[in-house]
Amino acid sequence: MKTTTKIKTLLVLAIATFFSNTTSAQDTPATNYDQGFRLGVGLNAGYAVNDPYKLALGADARLQYDLTKRYSLTLTTGFTNLFVSEADGSDLGFIPAKAGFKAFVWNDQFYLMGEAGAAFAVTNGYNKTSLLLAPSIGYATKYVDISLRYEHYSDFAKVNNDGTTGKGVGQAAVRLAYGFQL
């Protein structure tokens, strides 16, 4: 056998060995984890960070599909009411519709989540739909879910510091929920 043929044969064997080792080193999913749906029902209380609103109260239902033990997709809806601070203003009640992604980052209990969707105003003559963005951080067990989140509604009216009106209302909220596997 020529020297170049031996070198080519050794090179092909080395490459084949390298690729066979890397393909067999892939992680296999846990066989005891059941992918599936969860349903959570929660109560929300928050503080609206823009005038004329102050207090925010609501309730929601969240459908969650677990992709893996650490990653989930979510769909959330419910009802939220932003209460005005002045007696002559009108409260803003709306139905949020959000899709999100939840990632457990520590001990399979602490998570980060981002949601995006729409908020459909339904009370006091409001006829507006707003983009809704909501990052959150939370703690979840088998049945309890507690989270802190900020929600921003880009198209709802606010009162600026100089008395003019603008767009973009936000709220910081706490959610306490009971969840279970379907």
TrEMBL record:
Keywords: Signal. Residues 1-25 form the signal peptide. This is Outer membrane protein beta-barrel domain-containing protein.
